[in-house]
Amino acid sequence: FRAQVLPVLMVEAAVALAWLVTAARERRFRAFGIAALALAGGVWFCKSAPADVFVDESNGWLQLARHARDHGDARLAAQRATRAIEANPRNVYALVELGMSLDRQEDVGGAIQRLRDALSVDPGCNDALEALLALHFRRRQWALLEATAAQAVHGQPNIEVPHYWLGRMHRERGRAEEALRAFHEALKRDTRSFRTAKALGETLAGMQ
Predict the structure, then answer these.
(1) 106 Cβ contact list (under 8 Å, min separation 6)
(2) How many other CB atoms sit within 10 Å of the CB of residue 164?
(3) Residues 6+ apart with CB under 8 A from 9
(4) CA–CA distance, 87 with 189 (Å, rounded to integer)
């Protein structure tokens, strides 16, 4: 797989040049300075960047799969992720991508299996764990969510992800006290987690 670099950088430099001319005409000096720096950077990158960037076949298909899913074509994303896995069966992110794409196609069983496959390849892959727990939450598969979270806590006791989703599950089921405990456990492991702090605050507000 080959990705052309220079055409992209040339476009960026052209945009910076147009911005520079506009700023000069309108006498917006701060914008002029920023545009000048952007143009200089674009010219420098054009001179120093390689003409192409090469990636291996598996990751090339993975990038194409992500592009398709980002543009709403889950079926094409699944096909491309499958090609990525065929090229490298241990590409954990391709397995995650396939799982997420299958979930969008309502193939819940296939999605769960692919995400479990990803965790089998790399038990520490938080992307796979996050996607699997989120899937169980959206599908209200409470027993599977609890089992997956418990396994993750046992294998990775210092991560926030399983505790956060346990808290979300408890709150969804009307178990405010259990939700608070889970969110507190999540914050102990990641004190900067905005989503956990937000969920904790919302839970406390709902109890008043």
Answers:
(1) none
(2) 25
(3) 42, 45, 46, 49
(4) 36
pTM, two decimal places: 0.74
Tens digit of each residue's pLDDT (9 = 90 or more) over 181-200? 999 999 999 999 999 999 99
The pLDDT of residue 26 is 74
Q: Helix 108-121 to helix 126-138 angle, to the nearest 10 degrees?
A: 160
Q: With contact defined as beta carbons under 8 Å apart, do 123 and 131 qualify?
A: no
Rounded CA separation 59/65 (Å): 10
